[in-house]
């Protein structure tokens, strides 16, 4: 290799380093803008809503008087809706992801299903609301209930869980499969005893991220007819008599945190704007806690797995 070739290679390396620096700076600036925007909005919510954060705000029903209004029915409704969402979407999404990745034959039908699952992850949430209105509310007769809301949000995050499950399974080194098959394990034993446990951190991360998205959704919940003003709680899921489980709450009317915020922000009084800011602050903190839980679970589960 002569000096001219060496100089040419050095020029290419310098050019690539220059482009790397440009993209790094552009990415840092984009990240800075996003973080500053979030910090600014979050700080504004803290300033406006801090005075309303007291025990009465969490234990009071909505009221026409801003000083007496609270989020009791909203946060209870959010928890119940998220419970139905998790129970309906997580098992089905994980099972579908495992099937598509490990069992489904590679043919045209499977390719069409995979393309549609990927595309559904980007469909606007209002479309799921319209689908739920026609299917769950009118066709199945579930009405404007907690069950309808939970199933609607379950459909919304189902593609996210399926994609996260498949990506987590693909990230497992191939020698895990080969070693298990080499020891005489069946396909079910490989999947249940090796692949799913190793993929659990990635699956849990996708589940928590999907639930974090669902808890802040408003459009599909409004579409199926969530109540904007509610001064009662659904029936308790736990009963004092055998079998100690009550399902009446599934058919109850409900509201959720985003709906309550929407109701307050539509009012012109400044006091209701403070209530909305306080509710938004709580909702953001709930979302951050769910994402922090995902990070912690992923860290703990990865530490417990020995490759």
UniProtKB/TrEMBL annotation:
<feature type="transmembrane region" description="Helical">
    <location>
        <begin position="276"/>
        <end position="297"/>
    </location>
</feature>
<feature type="transmembrane region" description="Helical">
    <location>
        <begin position="21"/>
        <end position="47"/>
    </location>
</feature>
<protein>
    <recommendedName>
        <fullName>Phosphate transport system permease protein PstA</fullName>
    </recommendedName>
</protein>
<dbReference type="GO" id="GO:0005886">
    <property type="term" value="C:plasma membrane"/>
</dbReference>
<keyword id="KW-1003">Cell membrane</keyword>
<comment type="similarity">
    <text>Belongs to the binding-protein-dependent transport system permease family. CysTW subfamily.</text>
</comment>
<dbReference type="InterPro" id="IPR035906">
    <property type="entry name" value="MetI-like_sf"/>
</dbReference>
<keyword id="KW-0812">Transmembrane</keyword>
<dbReference type="InterPro" id="IPR000515">
    <property type="entry name" value="MetI-like"/>
</dbReference>
<feature type="transmembrane region" description="Helical">
    <location>
        <begin position="120"/>
        <end position="140"/>
    </location>
</feature>
<feature type="transmembrane region" description="Helical">
    <location>
        <begin position="221"/>
        <end position="245"/>
    </location>
</feature>
<feature type="transmembrane region" description="Helical">
    <location>
        <begin position="67"/>
        <end position="100"/>
    </location>
</feature>
<keyword id="KW-0813">Transport</keyword>
<dbReference type="Pfam" id="PF00528">
    <property type="entry name" value="BPD_transp_1"/>
</dbReference>
<dbReference type="GO" id="GO:0035435">
    <property type="term" value="P:phosphate ion transmembrane transport"/>
</dbReference>
<dbReference type="GO" id="GO:0005315">
    <property type="term" value="F:phosphate transmembrane transporter activity"/>
</dbReference>
<feature type="transmembrane region" description="Helical">
    <location>
        <begin position="146"/>
        <end position="165"/>
    </location>
</feature>
<keyword id="KW-0472">Membrane</keyword>
<keyword id="KW-1133">Transmembrane helix</keyword>
<feature type="domain" description="ABC transmembrane type-1">
    <location>
        <begin position="75"/>
        <end position="294"/>
    </location>
</feature>
<dbReference type="InterPro" id="IPR005672">
    <property type="entry name" value="Phosphate_PstA"/>
</dbReference>
